[in-house]
Design brief:
With 130 residues, the chain is mostly helical. 64% of the residues lie in helices and 0% in strands.
Amino acid sequence: MSTIRRSVALLSAVCVLGTSLPLPAFAEAPSSLVTTEEIVRDTPIQQRVTELLARDDVRAALVERGVDPAQVQARVDALTADEAQQLADRLDQLPAGGDVLGVLFAVFVILLITDILGLTKIFPFTRPVR
C-alpha cells in the first residue's frame, strides 16, 4: 500500500508541476514571441498617454514640480488597461488648450494609489495596505 501512495503522490506532484509551467504565446509567425509589455505598450490608449508625456511643455511642468519624466513614463508603461482607460477618460475631460495641472494631478493620484496599494514606494507619507 505504501508504494501505491508514493506512486500517486509522485504522479500528483508531476501533474501539479506540469500545470504550473508557463506556456509561450506565439504571434503570427511561430518563431516570434509576444510579451505582455509589447501588448500593453501597443494599445491606443497607452500610446495617447505616452504621446502626451513626450510633449515638451508636459516634461517641463514635471521637472518644475520635481518629478523625473523617465520615472513617470515607467509608471505609465506599468499601468493596467483599466488604469490607462481611466487616465485617458480624465484627459478627455480636460479643456482643450488648458494647462497641464489636471494631467499632473491625475498622474499624482495614480502614483498615490499605487503607493497606497503597496505596488510602489514614492511618497514617504503613505503606508501600504498590505
